[in-house]
Specification:
Helix 8 packs antiparallel against helix 9 and helix 18 packs across helix 19. Helix content is 35%, strand content 20%. With 634 residues, it is an alpha+beta fold. The protein starts with a strand and ends in a 5-residue tail after the last helix.
Length: 634
């Protein structure tokens, strides 16, 4: 037996591998299967390419077994195998001079560099997360001798002669008390199906199953061997070979049993990219939005594979937040095989794949919209379902994804004061009157309330279309958009949006009503920012609008709900309809009590119509009761 001393840094290195680079201990099995798959890939190539190996019968397989009593898990393959020199070179990686550089990079907080693990080849040592000792028995293809490598991962590793009937490698993990939790059929099957289901070679699990007689009494056990992986990556097969049922079955298996979407997907997008980057993506859009789509701790829906080996399914960097409803896979040929999910976020390869994937999805969304515009009922139903479920995330994209804003703004849809169903910004502009300067919209929390809002009265009378935006996110998104096709977007609940509603007689009317406005303004005092004669009211006596530089009432409420408690008080601008009898009744009265009551009711009812809460509902009721009970006095 030959003993080899580890470098002094090894304990520190193993500690970093176990505690810093991997957050899920169960991935040790993924790493060992990945190594076995690589060994089979190498032998497969040699049996075809090199004469010395062509006589080897290549029947690739990976075998896993366990012994809970002995506290062991064994992973074996019949791949290329290793001789003594290979064991020193490959499993002694952490004893190389590169170890110091690896540690230095970690010390510099470079753990986010996705090349580190692949570069230094430390994936095998993740097995020490579950094992207190590891033994490796290996025989290199086309050689007779076999060797055993063993270590507790602390100070040294030992190499000695061994025996093995065929080429390949057997890894025996002598488990820690914590690691023994994985030594059972169910854990191993679950890990393999989640992380290695699409490894191209068959993976078999050998286990003992108890047998019972007709009376139910245990009569012994039988050893069974089952294949536990699918062994083929559906997304890597040519699209021409795949059926709709193939895609449906794969979609059903994407989610965990606890969150599986039992319906079919709305549609899927399957892409193979070749060139400077090689990758395959298969994305699905669920027919129903994920239940946690608006939760802060939502479950990411895209899985990352590298060369068919599963890496992660909970990295939220794989897709932008606004596309969090997308389900599917990304399989890269260019990322390091043993890349850790903790260090993916700043990887340039993944960023390029993500950007290309977003553009591809946007083009598919646009095709869906175009088909709805020109196609039959099925195409329309599919598009309407998409908008009903995902219109809000698309709006988030308008705010978050500046690079793709132009594409996204063609997809978002709104309700309209003049049209049935959904409408686009493009359709609105096409319907604009020749002299209309602005795209008008109104925001608030309830569609029916907005449609009945006094703010729309004059626009409706002049046949000017107003977009109805009843999603609270519209308050944040639309002002950030600003313009569409050189047309400025104007909120009708803001001062200044009534420019195109002006009348020739406005100046004279304003002078005539000025004394009434001054009375109302004096009565309301600091409850309002200003009182003005309204151009937008036809039937209602009053409405409120926000100053162009102030957040609206809805925006203030949303910010407060998000935890911004120190919001300054937002004072509205009260607009009054000079032709309404309630307002006109104040022209001749000098009763300050009545003026105060009318002014208070005009403001409070305008606030209520806009969905605002009254600071003092009792005061509103008392004023209203006094006005109802007492006839006006001269």
């Amino acid at each position: 037996m030959a003993q080899h001393q580890f470098q002094t840094e090894v304990s520190r290195l193993l500690h970093l591998i176990i505690h810093s680079l991997y957050s899920n201990r169960e991935i040790f099995l993924r790493e060992l299967i990945s190594n076995a798959s690589d060994a089979l890939d190498k032998l497969k190539y040699l049996t075809v390419a090199e004469e010395a190996y062509k006589s080897i019968v290549f029947e690739p397989r990976i075998d896993i077994s366990f012994d809970k009593e002995a506290k062991t898990i064994t992973v074996a393959d019949n791949g290329i195998g290793m001789n003594e020199a290979d064991l020193i070179d490959s499993l002694g990686t952490i004893a190389r001079s590169g170890t110091r550089a690896f540690l230095e990079k970690l010390a510099e907080d470079a753990k986010k560099d996705s090349n580190l693990i692949g570069q230094f080849g430390v994936g095998f040592y993740s097995a020490f997360m579950a094992a207190e000792r590891i033994e490796v028995i290996s025989r290199k293809a086309a050689e007779e001798a076999a060797w055993k490598w063993s270590s507790d991962g602390k100070e040294r590793y030992d190499i000695e002669a061994a025996s093995r009937e065929t080429q390949g490698t057997t890894v025996i993990l002598r488990l820690t008390d914590e690691g023994v939790q994985y030594a059972n059929r169910w854990s191993i099957e679950d890990i393999v199906k989640r992380y290695s289901n699409h490894v191209a070679f068959p993976i078999y699990l050998t286990y003992d199953e108890k047998e019972y007689d007709d009376s139910g009494k245990e009569k012994g056990s039988a050893t069974k061997t089952d294949r536990i992986n699918a062994g083929t990556a559906l997304w890597r097969r040519p699209k021409s070979e795949l059926t709709d049922e193939d895609y449906r079955e794969f979609y059903r298996g994407l989610a965990s049993p606890l969150s599986r979407d039992t319906e079919e997907s709305l549609f899927h997008v399957h892409t193979k990219a070749e060139g400077s980057l090689e990758y395959i993506t298969l994305f699905y859009v669920p027919r129903k939005a994920p239940f946690d789509m608006y939760h802060m701790d939502y479950k990411a829906g895209v899985k990352l594979y590298v060369k068919r080996v599963f890496i992660t399914d909970d990295d939220k960097e794989l897709m932008p937040i606004w596309l969090r409803f997308v389900r599917g896979i990304i399989d890269s040929e260019d990322l390091p095989l043993n890349v850790s999910r903790e260090i993916l976020q700043q990887n340039k390869i993944l960023l390029n794949i993500r950007n290309a994937s977003v553009k591809k999805l946007l083009s598919e969304f646009k095709a869906l919209a175009d088909n709805a515009a020109s196609g039959g009922e099925e195409a329309k139903e599919k598009w309407e379902t998409f908008i009903r479920e995902y219109n809000r995330p698309l709006k988030e994209g308008l705010y978050q994804d500046f690079a793709n804003r132009e594409s996204i703004q063609e997809l978002v849809r709104f309700k309209s004061s003049t049209q049935e169903g959904w409408t686009s910004l493009s359709d609105y502009v096409d319907r604009m009157k020749g002299d209309q300067k602005y795209i008008y919209y109104v925001t608030g929390g309830n569609e029916q309330t907005l449609r009945a809002s006094p703010l729309l009265e004059a626009y409706r009378a002049r046949d000017i279309e107003v977009l109805i935006m009843d999603d609270e996110i519209d308050e944040l998104v639309i002002p950030s958009l600003g313009r569409y096709r050189d047309k400025e977007l104007k909120a009708v609940n803001r001062a200044g949006a009534d420019e195109e509603l002006g009348k020739a007689e406005d100046k004279a009317a304003e002078q005539e009503i000025r004394p009434v406005i001054e009375k109302i303004k004096k009565a309301l005092g600091d409850r309002v920012k200003d009182v003005k004669l309204s151009r937008r009211l036809q039937d209602s006596p009053s409405c409120i609008v926000a100053d162009e530089n102030d957040p609206s009432i809805q925006m203030a409420q949303m910010l407060k709900a998000l935890g911004q408690a120190e919001m300054p008080e937002i004072k509205p601008i009260l607009e009054v309809n000079g032709e309404h009898p309630i307002v006109a009744s104040l022209k001749e009265t000098g009763d300050e009590g009545r003026i105060a009551d009318v002014a208070g009711v005009l403001l409070d009812q305008a606030l209520l119509v806009e969905g605002a809460k009254l600071k003092d509902p009792g005061d509103f009721v008392r004023r209203l009761n006094r006005l109802l009970a007492v006839p006006p006095r001269a």
